Amino acid sequence: MDRMRPQKRGDFRKQVNSWWNNLTEGQRTVTGIIAANVFVFCLWRLPGMRRVMFTYFTSNPSSRALCSPMLLSTFSHFSLFHMAANMYVLWSFSSSIVSLLGCEQFIAVYLSAGVISTFVSYVAKMATGRFEPSLGASGAIMTVLAAVCTKMPEAKLAIILLPMFTFTAGSALKAIIAFDTAGLALGWRLFDHAAHLGGALFGIQEYRPWTGAKPSKPIKSKQGFIIPEDHFVQETSYKADFKIPDVKTRFSPNPSAVFQAPSRILNV
Fold first, then answer.
1. pTM above 0.70, yes or no
2. Catalytic residue of the set 99, 138, 193, 231
């Protein structure tokens, strides 16, 4: 029996190595982000950490800590469902966005998106006088979603429970932005709609500077053929299955979009 144990441990390591090597670059990149979110989620379960968590891991312009929560709240989830859904979306989009931006640029955009979406949330809360604390990764994930939908607006999406209904990624992005705009204008408190909008607009805007892409008409190359045109273009219970359109692209995206149920703390 004792001789079998090292072999079992060795087999387990081989299985882990095989699993890791089969991941895409994007999936390996977001593994660390997911691990950080799980660690922060576990901290919320410790009663002695609650004061620290509310101070530094929820964003609120009326809090005594303003700057660090703009980033830390992006990794913070109080609800298991909230965290699981957000991390599933991030995992689903990871291969596409890292293929689009590159590993280092993706990390920079993701962290920047968390800060910018929280800043937009701060501005909206100051303007409306509503100072509910917010937390969650949806603002940053909306940046990822918007960047991919901007790159491939004609890709087909479908709701997981209603696969017979399909729609384009561009239409889905417009619908999400319209929903959050209405929520912000009408004062809905289900989600932090301002953070969602900030993340989405940042994703649309930042796609071009990071990739150098321009939303122009098809361009003739020197060889005389037409280069295919690149089209440029948070949380409810929605998932989208991504189908690749018949266009030439540098990567094979397979993103999904999931949006969460509300809680007393605004889910970002």
1. yes
2. 138
